Amino acid sequence: MAAKPLLICLMGPTASGKTDLAIDLAGVLNCELVSVDSALVYRGLDIGSAKPDYPHHLVDIREPDDPYSAADFAVDARRVVADILERGRTPLLVGGTMLYFRAFLEGLAEMPAAEPALRQAIEVEAAARGWPALHAELERVDPDAAARIHPNHSQRLARALEVYRASGVPISEWQRRQDVEPAASRYTLRQLAICPRDRAVLHRRIERRFEQMMAAGFLEEVRALHGRPGLHAGLPAIRAVGYRQLWHYLDGECSLEEAVQRGVAATRQLAKRQLTWLRKWPGLDWLETGAAGNVLPGARSHSAVDTCMDDLLQRALNYIGPAPS
């Protein structure tokens, strides 16, 4: 039986160094990069999303007023991966949107399409009653989903209520009905996670990167989006970390200093959520780095060799191994 093609997934929290490592890997492993990032899909979200110059698939594929979902990503990524393999190259999926990774690797059930009118009604209701009240409603109709969704995670909470109100079937039940063949049965999977071992290092990188984005014109980028007809704070693109906080400033809801502070805090919270996902991720090899970006000894690994090397690229290559022949 022919060997399954190699598929590499490189994950990690924001500002952990994923993109730089992916570019290095692409240079020596004949890879094409596939972005797994819910902000990079949108055109016009460049500075605040740290959009890379190096070519990635699934970047700049939607306008910000055209919402993109995990289900959309799963379909697009399967097509892109098949095209890359057909060209005789190795797909390397890199990013931090963990729901997108799960949708591609494990599949998502077909469920009701988004209904803008229903979603808007939920947003209006939330403004009047508060998201915790809507979370309590979800707990009554879908306790499984409510247990996974924080009361302040408005986007996921609204989607769960939207699905239930549209279909009468809880979103958790739709998710249990998935029938997509898992990626592990189709590919030789190598899954890596990169992160500084010291969380203080990650927090300093997040703060420094936000400062650099502001200096590069992030506020002007958001101001341009703010002035476009049809864009509003309820869209997934505008709810992206950093964009949402500067949007509030432009709406006069806070000072610029407060918006920046909130943006940094929200980015740290995003990194924390990403790490929560990653700690539970099966079959994951960890590359833990120091302040200078070098790999530290004793990285947590399920299957990789124990030898620690200073060269991050060489360590990652050791985890990945040769492509199947």
UniProtKB/TrEMBL annotation:
The keyword Transcription does not apply. Residues 37-40, 155-159 are annotated as: Interaction with substrate tRNA. It comes from Parahaliea mediterranea. The keyword Nucleotide-binding applies. Coiled coil: none annotated. Catalyzes the transfer of a dimethylallyl group onto the adenine at position 37 in tRNAs that read codons beginning with uridine, leading to the formation of N6-(dimethylallyl)adenosine (i(6)A). Its cofactor is Mg(2+). Keywords: ATP-binding, Magnesium, Nucleotide-binding, Transferase, tRNA processing. Signal peptide: none annotated. HAMAP family: IPP_trans. One of its GO terms (biological process) is tRNA modification. InterPro entries: Dimethylallyltransferase (IPR039657), IPT (IPR018022), P-loop_NTPase (IPR027417). Belongs to the IPP transferase family. The record marks T97, R119 as: Interaction with substrate tRNA. Its EC number is 2.5.1.75. SUPFAM superfamilies: P-loop containing nucleoside triphosphate hydrolases. This is tRNA dimethylallyltransferase. ATP binds at G12, P13, T14, A15, S16, G17, K18, T19. It catalyses: adenosine(37) in tRNA + dimethylallyl diphosphate = N(6)-dimethylallyladenosine(37) in tRNA + diphosphate.
